[in-house]
Write a structure and sequence with these properties.
The chain has 295 residues and is of the alpha+beta class. Helix content is 31%, strand content 18%. The protein has 2 domains: 3-216, no CATH class; 229-291. Helix 2 runs antiparallel to helix 3, helix 6 (229-238) runs antiparallel to helix 7 and helix 7 runs antiparallel to helix 8 (273-286). It is globular.
C-alpha cells in the first residue's frame, strides 16, 4: 500500500498522521478497498447523534486515542497490509501492519462493531452508561449530553472505565459551560484546565463551548465572476448541514438550480445574466451564515 503523511499543525492530538492508500490501483487490477465490504453508511447516524447532543443541559464530547490501532487484524489477513519503507542506506524494507488502519474502507465499520460488541457485553452494574455510550459514538468520537453536573461526573467516570476494559483510552473531554457553583462542585479539576480554545469542531460543525451554540464551518470565500451550472451545483452540494439548520437559506439556491437546468446550458458555460446575478447575490449573503449561531 502506498502511504503518505497528513500534516495538521493545529491538531491538539496528532499533528502528523500516516495515511495508507488502500484505494490505489495498478493497471486494471482492483484495489484493496474494492475487495472489502464497507459496511452500512455511518453518516446516517450523525443527525440523531447531534440531536441528542442538544437535548440535555450539558453537552459532552470525547474521543478514543488511536482507536483503529487498538483492534488486531487476523493473522491470515495481515499480508494484505504490507507497505514499503526506505531506510537510510536506500535499502527497501517490507513491513506489514497487524492492526486496523485508517485508510481501509471497512475500518470505521470494524471499529463500530468492536465497540458495540464490547458495550453489549458489559456487566449489569454499568449497563446504563454502556447503553448511553452505544448511542453516542460516531466512529471514534463520543458525542452526547447529560442533565446536570452529577450526571456528568458519573458519565465521565463510568465511560472511561468501560472503554479502558477494551484497552481504549477515552480522552480529550469537552463539555458545555458550567456555572461558577458547578465548577466548584466538579471534582475532576484537571478537565477544567488547559482548554486551548472555546470553539471546537463536533461532527463537522463548530461548537462554541462558552455560550453552548453551534455554527456551520463552511468557508464562503470563492471568487466567482460568471458562475456556471457546474459551479452552482458544486457550491450548494458542498455546504455541510446534517440536521437542516440552513434549509430556509438553501431554498433559493435549489430553485436557481432548477432554473439553470431548464436553460439546457452546458456544464461550464456561463448562465443567463439573471441567474448569475441572483446567485452571486445569494452567495455573498451566505457568508453571514458562518457567523450565525443556534443557541
Amino acid at each position: 500500500m502506498p502511504h503518505h503523511p497528513v500534516i495538521k499543525p493545529n491538531s491538539s492530538t496528532t499533528s502528523i498522521r500516516p495515511v495508507f492508500d488502500a484505494s490505489c490501483k495498478i493497471g486494471r487490477a482492483p484495489s484493496l478497498n474494492d475487495c472489502l465490504f464497507k459496511g452500512p453508511n455511518l453518516i446516517e447516524q450523525i443527525p440523531a447523534i447531534l440531536l441528542r447532543f442538544r437535548k440535555k443541559a450539558i453537552a459532552v464530547v470525547a474521543d478514543i486515542r488511536r482507536a483503529f490501532l487498538q483492534i488486531e487484524v487476523k493473522e491470515n489477513d495481515r499480508h494484505f497490509l504490507r507497505f514499503l519503507w526506505w531506510r537510510k542506506n536506500d535499502e527497501i524494507q517490507v513491513y506489514q501492519l497487524n492492526r486496523v488502519i485508517f485508510g481501509d474502507t471497512c475500518s470505521p465499520f470494524l471499529l463500530g462493531a468492536v465497540i458495540k460488541y464490547h458495550l453489549n457485553n458489559t456487566s449489569d452494574e454499568v449497563k446504563p452508561v454502556a447503553n448511553k455510550l452505544s448511542k453516542s459514538y460516531y466512529i471514534d468520537i463520543c458525542v452526547t449530553s447529560v442533565y446536570n453536573i452529577l450526571s456528568l461526573e458519573e458519565f465521565i467516570l463510568g465511560a472511561t472505565q468501560i472503554m479502558a476494559e477494551a484497552k481504549m483510552n477515552l480522552r480529550m473531554w469537552e463539555f458545555g459551560p458550567l456555572s461558577e457553583i458547578e465548577q466548584k462542585l466538579f471534582k475532576n479539576k484537571s478537565l477544567l484546565e488547559d482548554k486551548q480554545s472555546h470553539i471546537i469542531t463536533v461532527l463537522g460543525l463548530k461548537w462554541d463551548r462558552e455560550d453552548d451554540s453551534l455554527m456551520i464551518s463552511n468557508q464562503f470565500d470563492l471568487k466567482l465572476k460568471t458562475p456556471s451550472k457546474r459551479e452552482i451545483l458544486s457550491i450548494t452540494q458542498s455546504i455541510y448541514d446534517p440536521i437542516g439548520f440552513l434549509a430556509p437559506a438553501m431554498l433559493p439556491a435549489k430553485l436557481m438550480i432548477q432554473e439553470a437546468w431548464s436553460t439546457k446550458t452546458k456544464w461550464d458555460a456561463p448562465l443567463p445574466k439573471t441567474i448569475q446575478r441572483n446567485f452571486l447575490r445569494w452567495y455573498e449573503e451566505l457568508k453571514h451564515l458562518s457567523r450565525s449561531k443556534d443557541v
